[in-house]
Amino acid sequence: MTVLHVGCGRKRLDAEALFRYVGLQMATEDVRVIHLDANPSVEPDLVCTLGRDAIPLPDDSVDLIVAWHVLEHVGRQGESGAWFRCWEELYRVLAPSGWLYGESPYYTSIWAWSDPTHTRALSEHSFVFFAQDSYRVPDSAISPYRLRCDFQWLGLGNMPRGFEVITQPQDARVTSLRFAMAPKKPLQPWWET
């Protein structure tokens, strides 16, 4: 199993420690973790700026992407180009049976905009743009973007809808959105069907 830990920062963890850190209970034997970060000084396995650079891995080569408090940093505030490119790259490297597991500050959290490096606030509704079926809804209100990715919620035991909003017991103003998504492959773009 190949795990891509995007935005690893200083947390260059082995599989057991990474799964414990993000709350996954999975077997760790034969798991290879690849650490990716934009900052070469943290010595990741791969240096890459999400949304700007292509992820230097082959198509369909990753079984699990862990994106822990990184996606809210992608691109520039108010711009969508890098944000969409990031998701197209995540989709490209995920194997058809792979999945993405992430967490970001929830849009109502005091941390959504308190960190000056956050470029967007996320909710479960932010991900509708990455599902091709969203564009096939008659009279859909969303802009008809032509994204080359297609994700669906992946229900897990503790997240049957594919996402959950987590509130810190010590401070109810601190909330995070935890989510799991699976790629739908092969890609069948809404504009070609």
Give an overview of the whole structure:
The chain is an alpha/beta fold and 193 residues long. It has one domain: Rossmann fold (3-Layer(aba) Sandwich), CATH 3.40.50. The protein has four helices and eight strands; from the N terminus they run E-H-E-E-E-H-E-H-H-E-E-E. Strands 1, 2, 3, 4, 5, 6, 7 and 8 form an eight-stranded mixed sheet that branches.
How would you sum up this structure in a few lines?
This protein is an alpha/beta fold.
Shape: globular
CATH H-level homologous superfamily name: Vaccinia Virus protein VP39
Poorly predicted residue ranges? none
What level of helicity do the residues show?
Answer: 10-25%
Briefly, what CATH class? Alpha Beta
CATH architectural label: 3-Layer(aba) Sandwich
| Backbone structural class | alpha/beta
CATH topology: Rossmann fold
Order of helices and strands: EHEEEHEHHEEE
Strand proportion:
25-35%
Descriptive keywords:
single chain, 193 residues, alpha/beta, Rossmann fold, eight-stranded mixed beta sheet, 4 helices, 8 strands, globular
Set out the fold topology.
Blueprint: E1 2-6, H1 15-22, E2 32-37, E3 46-47, E4 62-68, H2 81-93, E5 94-105, H3 111-114, H4 132-135, E6 151-153, E7 163-168, E8 171-183
